[in-house]
Amino acid sequence: MKIHQLQKSKWLKDKARRRWRGNGTGTGNYSGRWLKGQKARSWHSMKPFFEWGQTSIVQRLPKARGFTRYYKLVKDVTIVNLGVLDADIRITDAMEITKQVLKDLWYIKSVGTFVKILWHGDYAKHLVFTGIEAFSASAKIKMEKPGTTHSVAKKTPVKIVKDPKSKVWKLKTKTAAEKKAVKKAPVVKAVAAKAEKLIETTIEKPAVKKVVTKTVVEKPVVKKVAAKAVVEKPAVKKVAAKPAAKKPAAKKTK
Q1: What are phi and psi of 170, to 5 degrees?
Q2: Which 3 state secondary structure label does DSSP give 186?
Q3: CA proximity to 117, closest of 104, 100, 98
Q4: What would the pLDDT profile of 11-32 be if each residue is shown by its tens digit?
Q5: Sign of the CA dihedral 82, 86, 90, 94?
Q6: Which of 38-42, 101-105, 110-114, 146-150 has the lowest mean pLDDT?
Q7: Collapsing DSSP states into helix, strand and coil, what is residue 160?
Q8: pLDDT, tens digit, for every residue of 72-81?
Q9: CA-derived radius of gyration, the chain
Q10: Element (H, E) at 217
Q11: Long-range pairs for 149-154 at CB < 8 Å and ≥24 separation?
Q12: What is the C-alpha separation between 111 and 162, in angstroms, rounded?
């Protein structure tokens, strides 16, 4: 078997490039590697995420727990046009349109998707929408003309806020109305307490006689101490003092 007898595999789509087959082939002299340098060496191998000394994108992405990328926080909205629903033969007049119906008709992939109805095209059917999250202003005007009704499922808007302490982007679901309700709550409680006091003062309560109870003060019990018996000491006899001895008279000398 020779080189010209080889057949190309079925799964190969790119044109095979044969190196070192002359300048006419486009890969002569340097075999497509050009002059010198790192890529021209036989030992050259480059890692898949190598960026020529720059910190690669893999190393720059945060890997700490709690990190979520912004595109995961953005809501994915599926759009359905009124003109498309009106032109669909499977949808009859005055039919109730729910997410399950839209899924069965292959307008959405799952029941949990966020659906928004837009006005595009002619609309003459009197459809009833239930469980749909959002409607455009023009779609509401178009639906009110033929007398259709729709119910908007109320959901808190998704907001992305950066926490100043942890410096992590988080979802913020509280609306302005909820914040006002929280602020008004203590005021409403205070007003209700005042109203209760006023009601209590206006209602006449039956007079209750107060029974005065005398407080008996208990005197402390004094313990009697037994008197100690006095022992009489024996009388001591006084000894008479001895008379002082007389000194002998001094002899007179001539």
Answers
A1: -130, 160
A2: helix
A3: 98
A4: 877 776 778 888 888 888 888 8
A5: positive
A6: 146-150
A7: strand
A8: 778 889 999 9
A9: 55
A10: none
A11: 150/117
A12: 31
Closest CA to 116 of 91, 81, 154: 81
In contact, 13 and 19? CB cutoff 8 Å: no
Which residues, including other chains, have CB under 8 Å from residue 55's CB and lie 6 or more apart?
none
- Tallying the residues shown for the chain, one arrives at 254
Q: Please name each of the domains of the chain with its CATH number.
A: 74-152 (3.100.10.10), 157-198 (no CATH)
- Tokens coding 217: 């003060």
The order of strands in the sheet holding 128-132 is: 96-97, 128-132, 150-152
**pTM here?**
0.36
d(Cα 58, Cα 251) in Å, to the nearest integer? 145
Spatial neighbors of 153 by CB under 8 A, at least 6 apart, are 131, 132, 133
Beta strands of 76-156 (E only): which ranges?
A: 77-81, 96-97, 114-118, 128-132, 134-135, 150-152
Q: State the amino acid at position 199 in one-letter form.
A: I
